[in-house]
């Protein structure tokens, strides 16, 4: 497959927007402002000279440097479409093995180079963006360290090169009748090492666990040495360092191998889409379901606003009319859509949902969701062509706080561009549930600004206002996307000064000159230089 | 209830050893050597003068200092029975609230005092033992900070003072139809703060999770400040500091409040004791059961040696004869005993076990186990009276390694006193299972030595040889008892130099003069003094 250099995913997938969706967006938001995009050739011509000379250890190819300069956040998209990346890595290293990786880090340490570990480049929080640095910057891609290295069927453990992508990892495991079961929306492009480094959560984490539960051991190359984190099922031998590597975002070192807990492929998965009459009751339904211990494999509950918008984006006129009529007939004027996986317990789950106002269960729509589960990011391209910017926010909080947090987030987003008299389309779903609470995943759309800078300004206003609201209302700044550079300013409020000082101390211990991914996780100047 | 000052548990419980057990021990180990015990009065008379004067913040009462000097390891028992504690705290503080706790720590910081946080005093790894220090030592008991402070039934979270004991915690939750479900063998005396600080695991952790999964948030008083660790169901916002507090064993600070994830009381628990014909097949049975995702609430599998010994300790002559005949009839010459909890799925679990050679399932024996689940430590007293020393070891490892680790541990223990021509009685059960692996819990008995010193020497030989074997064979030095002072020397091998250097850095950051529980977790002199 060829990968789109300035947007999401494979070049052979290019969805278009249904006419009804375009009409709805124009009505709700006003006309789109297509800003176009520069060609790859033009973008390459804008790449500045490297501060490093060519080496066995890396390449200074302008195209390679361009292709590794940005992730997939909206600011990244604006940079990619405009061809102006801000900063570029001076070189891209693609080590084949541990020895080459070690040699690169040893050299980086000696020469005070900055190193940015790079997995699938799918970050939406600025994890792999190049900081403004006086020091040369090398982006270190793990793409070639992507093989299955060991599989223990007794302990159900598999070790991979950290750069293995989701599809390659599942293919290697499926061939031996195993699965990891980790399916984030970025699955097609993101990598095992990236999942660990950013504390990723897959769509079926209710069955398989978050990456925290799947991560059993690793080889991590710190700036100074090779660190083997042993696999052990559970331990009381002091703090668990795996938990410090999880979410370390490249700041402690570079993951070269990761051992994960695998499972036999499931015999039968059953995805359903259900519709419930009332959102508040639907929230009660999923909370009571998880707290009762019913073994659902996924619970993804859309607010009526999202339900409406998703149906408009997904269904053609006649199908949509039929569904609207049916739901009205059943008294679901404000339908809340629940996508779930039920395995052997699907009947018990259906019965539970019926008690909370479910009016429809469709395995056909559930299977449709399953087939299209990684497709949503491609819609960004269709929206971009029509002149609309789209981004998402996500957080998690305790059940007692979930509705007030959702209302605060949505209110803030809807009014953040009021000074320009510009409405914002905002909708939310509950994406992951726990006994204690749940995550909220909010999508927001607005017409692009008059130009790239104006579009970025709009995003900054929306992002900053909402991020501040999230942490002030007791949510975490990220449930599944990580911190990167975009969320780092909000960690102080979320974690408090004691935790932040300890984190700074830990990073400084491993990396006294802040050479590894500086600015990610912890907002800082290039401390220690 | 009155608590035994020099042994385990309540003074009103005093089990005796069945005659058959005494006979068996004499046959296997030779005659016991009763060493007796000094009276409380005598032990108090041996308490040296305090280096601190009496204060509002603490007491220097010799009896209080004696009662807080030691835990429950075998060396602790030898100290308690002989009346010679080695070192004693200079004072015991029993703060009533956060302000008093804070005041104590502020004073300790200013005056360079050593502070040992104390929960239930049930450590079997030397967590709360007083180090040899030039500085005055205060043992800080959380016993009075033990109340239910908040309960959120929606998010199913409860906040307690960290010093709450197991029974008091469950009573407060049960009154509102909730449970924590954390039942370590030390349940009667151990405390919530201690569980968190030492990464405790309860007998039903398959249902409820280890304390890591139950721990949602806390207030931790570091030497310098009050640290609030917020509750959030899950987060990708960098490393999770809760995981550093878990297992920190008082070295980062003192837990004053802990928030835990609670659940509604279960409608029905079903405990069973099953007997399987063959141990290897029984290991396969529990591994395949957990890896198939069958929802057992507990799986505790005794090796035939333990099965035999436990039956001898528990059953009278005629009952034992009957059982032996029945098992022989069913072809179970080497029976392996499995205690398990099955809830709604008990039939599926029984069917699964039948496929792996189960010859008996008894709910009566299962319920007997449930009733007696916290009784085993009381047997130590009966054994002591007969002149036998008993201790336990525990570890965890991946399934592929479980049998070779068990054999190495048992072989080492059996031969560790060979130079004295002294056999050691050794038996093991698998106490906790995971998809990836399981924990091993080994009990060993030997006649006490000629005197207290000789007994301690025997224990040191056994403990050191086996601890080294555990970490060299890829086991963790502790699955559920923690590190304390006894296991600290073995962490270097288990964790490796990178992890150990980082841990040292972290402890030094929070506590530069090593005033909080020095010597626990990390073997060290009084660094930084």
TrEMBL record, chains A, B:
One Pfam family from the record: FAD-oxidase_C
Signal peptide: none
GO molecular function: alkylglycerone-phosphate synthase activity; FAD binding
Cofactor(s) in the UniProt record: FAD
Site, Important for enzyme activity: residue positions: 300
Active-site feature positions: 441 (proton donor/acceptor)
Keywords of the record: FAD, Flavoprotein
InterPro entries: Alkyl-DHAP_Synthase, FAD-bd_oxidored_4_C, FAD-bd_PCMH, FAD-bd_PCMH-like_sf, FAD-bd_PCMH_sub1, FAD-bd_PCMH_sub2, FAD-linked_Oxase-like_C, Oxid_FAD_bind_N
Protein name, entry field: FAD linked oxidase domain protein
Species per Swiss-Prot/TrEMBL record: Ferrimonas balearica (strain DSM 9799 / CCM 4581 / KCTC 23876 / PAT)
């Amino acid at each position: 497959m060829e990968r789109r250099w300035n947007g999401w995913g494979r070049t052979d997938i290019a969805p278009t927007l249904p006419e009804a969706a375009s009409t709805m967006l124009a009505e709700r938001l006003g006309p789109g402002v297509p800003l176009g995009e520069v060609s790859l050739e033009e973008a390459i011509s804008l790449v500045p000279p490297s501060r490093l000379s060519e080496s066995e250890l890396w390449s200074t190819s302008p195209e390679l440097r361009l292709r590794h300069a940005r992730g997939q956040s909206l600011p990244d998209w604006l940079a990619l479409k405009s061809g102006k990346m801000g900063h570029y890595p001076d070189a891209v290293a693609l080590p084949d093995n541990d020895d080459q990786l070690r040699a690169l880090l040893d050299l980086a340490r000696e020469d005070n180079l900055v190193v940015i570990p790079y997995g699938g480049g799918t970050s939406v929080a600025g994890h792999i963006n190049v900081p403004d640095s006086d020091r040369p910057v090398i982006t270190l891609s793990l793409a070639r360290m992507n093989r299955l290295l060991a599989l223990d069927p007794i302990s159900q453990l598999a070790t991979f090169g950290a750069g293995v992508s989701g599809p390659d990892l599942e293919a290697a495991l499926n061939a031996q009748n195993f699965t990891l079961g980790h399916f984030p929306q970025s699955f097609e492009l993101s990598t095992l090492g990236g999942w660990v480094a950013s504390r990723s959560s897959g769509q079926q984490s209710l069955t398989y666990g978050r990456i925290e539960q799947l991560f059993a051991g690793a080889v991590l190359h710190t700036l100074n040495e090779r660190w083997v984190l042993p696999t052990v099922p559970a331990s009381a031998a002091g703090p668990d360092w795996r938990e410090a590597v999880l979410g370390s975002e490249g700041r402690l070192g570079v993951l070269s191998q990761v051992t994960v807990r695998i499972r036999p492929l499931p015999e039968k998965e059953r995805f359903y889409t259900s519709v419930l009459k009332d959102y508040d009751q639907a929230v009660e339904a999923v909370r009571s379901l998880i707290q009762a211990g019913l073994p659902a494999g996924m619970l993804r509950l859309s607010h009526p606003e999202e339900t409406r918008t998703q149906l408009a984006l997904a269904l053609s006129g006649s199908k949509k009319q039929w569904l609207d009529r049916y739901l009205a007939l059943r008294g679901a004027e404000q339908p809340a859509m629940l996508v779930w996986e039920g395995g052997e317990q699907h009947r018990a789950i259906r019965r539970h949902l019926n008690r909370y106002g479910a009016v429809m269960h469709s395995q056909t729509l559930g299977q449709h969701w399953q087939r299209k589960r990684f497709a949503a990011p491609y819609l960004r391209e269709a929206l971009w062509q029509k002149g609309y910017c789209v981004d998402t926010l996500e957080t998690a909080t305790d059940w007692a706080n979930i509705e007030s947090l959702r209302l605060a987030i949505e209110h803030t987003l809807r009014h953040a561009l009021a000074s320009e008299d510009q409405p914002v389309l905002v909708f939310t779903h509950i994406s992951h549930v726990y006994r204690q609470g749940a995550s909220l995943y909010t999508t927001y759309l607005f017409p692009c600004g008059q130009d790239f800078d104006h579009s970025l300004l709009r995003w900054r206003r929306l992002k900053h206002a909402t991020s501040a609201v999230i942490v002030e209302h007791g949510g975490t700044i990220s449930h599944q996307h990580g911190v990167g550079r975009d969320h780092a300013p909000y960690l102080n409020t979320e974690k408090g000064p004691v935790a932040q000082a300890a984190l700074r101390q830990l990073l400084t211990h491993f990396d006294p000159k802040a050479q590894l991914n500086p600015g990610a996780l912890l907002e800082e100047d290039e401390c220690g230089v």
